[in-house]
Amino acid sequence: MQQVGTRPRLIQAMIDAFSLPDLRRRLIFTFAMLVVFRFVAHIPMPGLDVRAMRELFERNQLLGMLDLFTGGAMRNFSVAAMGVYPYITASIVMQLLVPVIPALRALSQEGETGRQRINQITHWLTVPLAALQGYAQINLLRSQGVVSEATTLATFAMVISLTAGTLFLVWLGELITERGIGNGVSIIIFGGIVARLPEMVGRGLIVRENIMGLIAFVLLGLATIAFIVIFTEAHRRIPVQYARTAFRGARMYRQTGSTHIPLRVNSAGMIPLIFAISLMIFPGTIASYFASPTGAEPNFANTIVNWFNPNAPLPRGLFYWVLYFVMVVAFTFFYTMVIFEQMDLARTLQRQGGFIPGVRPGKPTTEYLNNVITRITWGGALFLATVAVLPFFIRSITDVAVLTISSTGLLIVVGVALDTMKQIEAQLTMRRYEGFLR
């Protein structure tokens, strides 16, 4: 690591950030909002059997993984048990509907006003999605005996509380975006994941009979983080030249310049993982409502539950992870092409007087860019799919079941950390401070 004076650049950059009054206020405000989020995450809903809830999460690894994203709010069944995920679902739905519905497509082309209108529609869509998810979560916990039966009015009050908790967290996230540092909603998710890590590490240290497996687990986890950083920052540079005509008095001048378009190898981010895991969870969740209880004769629903169980023994477990791998690859291509088509880079270049050297403007440019994004997306798709199935291989290699490396969780943590570091660097650069990224 390079040095700035006698201190590492990262430490020096943080000192510089806190030495600026406005940037210091932004950082303190972000930390304060995370404290408020953690406080809300520990406000429980009524009628909860705490002991039964803990037993449920100990025997259900999938619920434990989802609880990791909410920072323990789901395990506590607090008013923030659903986190901001209904809002994320609404955002994904809107991204898919914009290129399909002409009215939304026209709205997206109206600049800042159109984006604000689409954001408002996304907030409206979040309310029914949060209510439906809250009602389903209450029924699921009741079927497991951890939430007591209640009247219709009490159930309605619980659904309203869960929906209000989600909207409150979304509001906190938007406050962070406006007055703090980084993308607020992403930082809320980041805070929930990081808040659970100390407990996970503590549980891992208790497993003293498998020290070598624990060491291998940590090393593989660090290698996974490095792998994610490399592919998150990887991109292909497409050279672009601009030719403009400028008039000075009665004379005409030809102005030229060059730049590049950075096409990311992983343009889809973590969205394909969310799509794939949602579809993988759906069959087992529906089948669990019709499955025979433990000790009774298993039926077809029990078979579905077993085949879609990520912790099932071979070969059922292998079927789950292979299908997960294929679905992540397919969704990566699908989502990347949808987003890339919305960007319409060829038309934007033509409108701004830019062109790719050796490629004619118009349709040939569109075909060239589509071919490039298709080729590099193979790398991003295989990267995401590999990260998605890493928990299966890490658990098999290390034989440490008490800890779970969530591929989606690692992607979120690394991505949000990189994005926040870049935003701090940009703030320091604007104030002529030397940052810590190049």
Task: Give the structure's gist in a few sentences.
The protein is built from 17 helices and five strands.
Series of H and E elements = EEHHHHHHHHHHHEEHHHHEHH
What is the CATH T-level topology of the largest domain? Preprotein translocase SecY subunit
- CATH superfamily annotation of the largest domain: SecY subunit domain
What gap, in angstroms, lies between the N and C termini? 12 Å
Total strands: 5
Helix and strand topology:
Layout: E1 3-4, E2 7-8, H1 9-19, H2 21-40, H3 50-59, H4 61-69, H5 73-76, H6 85-97, H7 102-108, H8 112-143, H9 152-179, H10 184-206, H11 211-233, E3 235-248, E4 251-264, H12 271-288, H13 300-307, H14 316-343, H15 345-351, E5 354-355, H16 363-398, H17 407-430
Antiparallel strand pairs: 1-2, 3-4, 3-5
Q: What does this protein structure show overall?
A:
The strands form two sheets. Strands 4-3-5 form a three-stranded antiparallel β-sheet. A two-stranded antiparallel ribbon has the order 1-2. The two termini are 12 Å apart. It is mainly alpha-helical and 438 residues long. 69% of the residues lie in helices and 8% in strands. It folds into two domains: 1-207 and 407-438, Preprotein translocase SecY subunit (Orthogonal Bundle), CATH 1.10.3370.10; 209-401, Orthogonal Bundle (Preprotein translocase SecY subunit). The chain is built from 17 helices and five strands.
